[in-house]
Specification:
The complex is a heterodimer of chains A (247) and B (254). Chain A has 247 residues and is α/β, with parallel strands linked by helices. Chain A is built from three helices and 16 strands. The relative contact order of chain B is 0.18. The chains are: A alpha/beta (247), B alpha/beta (254). Bound molecules: adenosine-5'-triphosphate and magnesium ion (MG). The site of adenosine-5'-triphosphate (ATP) has 13 residues of chain B, from helix 1.
Chain lengths: 247, 254
Amino acid sequence: MNKIIVTDSNEENRIEKVPFLSSNYTFQDAKRLFLSFEKEKVNLDFSVPEETDAEVILFGEQSDLEISYHLGKGSHLIVRCFALSTKGTIACYLEGEKASFTYHYAAINDCDVSLKTAVHHLAPHSISNMYQHVVVLKGATTLDVDGIVPKDINACVCNQDNKIINLGTSDCTILPNLRIDNYDVVANHAAFIGKFSLDELFYLMSRGLDQTTCYQLLIQSFLFGKMSLREEEKQLFYSSMTKVMEV
Amino acid sequence: MKIEINNLTVVTKDKKEILKDFSLTIKAGEVHALMGPNGTGKSTLSKVLLGSPEYEVVKGDILVDGKSILKLSTDERAKLGFFLSFQSPISIEGVTNTEFLKTAINTRREEAIGLFPFMQEMRQALKDLHMDEDMMLRSINQDFSGGERKKNEILQMKLLQPSFIILDELDSGLDVDSLRICCENIATYLKEHPKTSVLVITHYPRILEYLPLNYVHRMQAGRIVETGDFSLAQKIEKEGYLSENAIGGVVSHE
Ligand SMILES: Nc1ncnc2c1ncn2[C@@H]1O[C@H](COP(=O)(O)OP(=O)(O)OP(=O)(O)O)[C@@H](O)[C@H]1O
Ligand SMILES: [Mg+2]
C-alpha cells in the first residue's frame, strides 16, 4: 500500500504506516479511511459496527482489488473509489437492519478489465445505492453487477446505476443480475453503454472550448459528478484523470 | 463583424436537404430578424453557422469579413466571435457554470483571468440579469427552469463578448419581465460594442421592439423569401404564414 490516511471524528488526519490493514479492518474511532494502491494485489475486509458512520476513499492504479464490506445494524458506509485499469471483486453484505451502503465507483480503463460487484441484502430495511461509471479508452470492460435480496428480507432499497462510455473500439459489457425474491423492494436499475452526446460536445465547443478540454470536462463530470468529493480528493482524482488522458 | 452567407445548401447525415440556396448578408453593427414557420430550418442555420457536425454544407459559403470560415471547427468559430444562444440549452451534470465559464473566457485570452476579476465580472452580470448568485455554483443548466436557461445564455454572452450574436428563440420560455431584462442587456452590449452583428430568430415581434432592428426576413422551405422592416414582423404576427398574402412573397433582400 502506498499510503493510508486515517481521519477520526474530530477531522484530524493521522497518517499511518501500515500494514495494520493486512486483511481485516473494523471502524472504531476512525471515521474515514483513505487508501491508495499502485500495481498491487489487495485483499481487504472492512467491518462497520452497529450505528456507526464511515467513509472509505480508494484510489487504485493497475491493481487487483478484492474487497468486502460488512455493515452492521443502522450503520452507514460511503465508498468513493477511483480506479485506473484496475480489476476487482467487490462484495457488500448488509448484515444489520437499516444498514446503508452508498458506493461510487469511477474508473478509466485502457486495457481489458473485468469487475464484479455484488450487494447482499441480509437484513430488512437495508439500503444500497451503487453508481459505477467507467470510461473506456482501450480494451474491453465487463461490469458484472449483482443485487441480491432473499425472500424473507423486506422493505429494502436496492438501486444501481451502471454506465460505460466507450471511447475505444472493443465491445464492453454490463451484466446486471438482480436476484430479488421479495416483493416489497424498491429497485431501480440503469445500464448504459455509449458515447458522449454530440449535443453536449457541441454546446461546450460553441463557447470556445476545444475538443480535448470538452472531453476532459465531460469525463470529469461523468465520473465524479455525483460523488461530492472533498477538495483534497478532487485534486488527487482530477490530476490522475488528466494524467491518464494525456497519454 | 460582417457575415455573408452565400447560396448555402445544407443536408443532414441522411442527405435530407434543409437549407436550399440560402443567402443573407449581415453587415457589422446590423440587427437582422429571421422569422418562418416551424421546421423551415432556422435552428439548422444557427447550428450550421457554428459548424455543427450534424450537418453538411454541400454548396455555398459563409464569409466573415470576406474570409471563408467553412473549414473552422466550432470552437474556432466561437473564438472568432460567434455566439449562439440556443433554442433549447441543454444541461450538463457535474460541470459547474463557474468552472465552465472561466474555462470558456480563458480560451480567448492570452493570460488566464484571475479568480477575483472573474468573480467580479460574473457578479455584475448576474446582477444585471437579476439572477441568483448561487446558480453559478450549480451544474450547467441543471435543474434550471426554461427561462433560467435562457437567461444563462445571455449571461454567457455578456461574459464572452462576441462580435456576432445569434439568438435562437430567446423569447420562448422567458416571462415578460425577463425578456425585457435580457433584451436591455443585449441592447446595452450593442451600444458598447457597436460593430457587433446580430441575427434574431423569432416567431413574435415583441422581442424586436427592444432591439435596434434593421431588417426582418421571412424564411420558407430553407430560404429567405421576403425581406422588410418591423412591419413585416407585425404582418406575420397578424396574418401568419399560411394566409394568401403571406405566401409567395418576392425575394427582395440584397
Ligand atoms: N439532424 C437532423 N436530422 C434530420 N432532420 C433534421 C435534423 N435537424 C433538423 N432536421 C429537420 O429539419 C427541419 C428544420 O429544423 P429546424 O430545427 O432548423 O427548424 P426551425 O425552423 O428552427 O423550427 P422551429 O420554429 O420549430 O424551431 C425540420 O423538419 C427538422 O425535423
Ligand atoms: Mg428552431
